[in-house]
UniProtKB/TrEMBL annotation:
<dbReference type="InterPro" id="IPR036812">
    <property type="entry name" value="NAD(P)_OxRdtase_dom_sf"/>
</dbReference>
<comment type="similarity">
    <text>Belongs to the aldo/keto reductase family.</text>
</comment>
<dbReference type="InterPro" id="IPR020471">
    <property type="entry name" value="AKR"/>
</dbReference>
<dbReference type="InterPro" id="IPR023210">
    <property type="entry name" value="NADP_OxRdtase_dom"/>
</dbReference>
<protein>
    <recommendedName>
        <fullName>NADP-dependent oxidoreductase domain-containing protein</fullName>
    </recommendedName>
</protein>
<feature type="domain" description="NADP-dependent oxidoreductase">
    <location>
        <begin position="21"/>
        <end position="181"/>
    </location>
</feature>
<dbReference type="InterPro" id="IPR018170">
    <property type="entry name" value="Aldo/ket_reductase_CS"/>
</dbReference>
<dbReference type="Pfam" id="PF00248">
    <property type="entry name" value="Aldo_ket_red"/>
</dbReference>
């Protein structure tokens, strides 16, 4: 989502309204392709793109480099099955942010949604493997081929987040966790819902 060019990251007018900028996503992508061709980056990805926006890029005449990744919210309460399958078909890796749920900052987050790590199923499966609900949630996405990027400033939790490769979830456990999907999006970005490229109005 583009904002008015200038020094402010998220510029607003005197009434506090965000100042948007209409930018052609394909033109932006062509500029990024030039960066890759110039050796300034290894690969190109996108974030929060829905299927329509991805297809704009994938179907762009003269496409030189397709997106290698799409960074989106993804966790057991928001499993993104349709977007995940679409990206798999086009060899685009899903990078899941907020894989453990997220903070309860009302500016960014739907705080009416239940905390993911208190889920009974995740905790029950974790007890079986002597793992935390967080480790089970991360392992679930890893087994689905989703790259996870949990955020933590706590050294012990950072270490714990890496300790998910010494166990595997059974097919039944994977199905049980998939069944937890509530289509709950924690990060709604509602303050920008009137932006012409706001991505979350489409089904996926």
């Amino acid at each position: 989502m583009a904002f008015k060019p200038g020094d402010d990251f998220y510029p607003r007018d005197e009434n506090g309204k965000y100042l948007y900028h209409e930018t052609d996503l394909c033109a932006t992508w062509e500029a990024l392709e030039e960066c890759k061709d110039a050796g300034l980056c290894k690969s190109l990805g996108v974030s929060n793109f829905n299927r329509r926006q991805l297809e704009l890029i994938l179907n762009k005449p003269g496409l030189k480099h397709k997106p290698t990744s799409n960074q989106v919210e993804c966790h057991p309460y928001f499993t993104q099955p349709k977007l995940l399958e679409f990206c798999r078909q086009h060899e685009i890796v899903i990078v899941g942010y907020s894989p453990l749920g997220t903070c309860r900052d009302a500016m960014w987050v739907n705080v009416s949604s239940p905390p993911l790590l208190e889920d009974a199923t995740l905790n029950a499966i974790g007890k079986k493997y002597s793992k935390s609900a967080a480790q089970v949630a991360l392992r679930f996405n890893i087994q689905r081929g989703v790259v996870v990027i949990p955020k933590s400033f706590n050294p012990d939790r950072i270490r714990e987040n890496f300790q998910i490769f010494d166990f595997s979830l059974t097919e039944q456990e994977m199905e049980d966790i998939e069944a937890l999907n509530k289509n709950i999006r924690y990060v709604e970005l509602l303050m920008w819902s009137d932006h012409p490229e706001y991505p979350f109005k489409d089904e996926y």
